[in-house]
User: Fold this.
Amino acid sequence: MKNAVIYARYSPGSKQNYQSIEGQLKECYAFAERSDLRVVREYVDEHLTGTNDKRTQFLQMIEDSKRKGFQYIIVYQLNRFARNRYDSATYKAKLKKNGVRVLSAKENITDDASGILIEGVLESMAEYYSAELSQKVKRGIAMSAAKCKYFGGVIPLGYKVNSEKSFVLDEELAPVVKTVFEMFVAGSNYAELIRYLNGRGVKTTKGGEFNKTAFSAF
Assistant:
């Protein structure tokens, strides 16, 4: 019986959660049992994207492959391994040098010439999906901004968000913010601006007193 490890990952900002990790592991263990493989370790990266290689557990797994303690890496689907064809090819080449092959628990990829073609198509589809999703997110943020829609993050001082998730002026703080900008244009330094704001009891977006670094909220 040959040894295998399991690599599982779920992405930030997605609807995936730890339950999805458990689901991935369950399918990978079932695949290992069907394939007569002994699972010797799990590598799990949480809240990390597959579009780059800044994944602690992933990189540890690649490093551990040099010790030749396992011959296979089982993933739920190939897009859990990488969504970038360059990274996928690079790391698979390193693994091949160490005698390790990547297996997909949910994708029927044969070990012949046609399997090479199918694997390439699946990796291309994963990269296309990742690029398309990125474009949609950026387009959605731009459209929301144009409509003064709030899409998360810090609310700038002088604004608030109404029940329709739109930015509106904070009638109490907007005049203060305007005065601060006018003071800055007129030559006031940060110390003077800080005294002005703290003297009026204005709080930062985090609820604290103003200092020089707090002006990033404007």
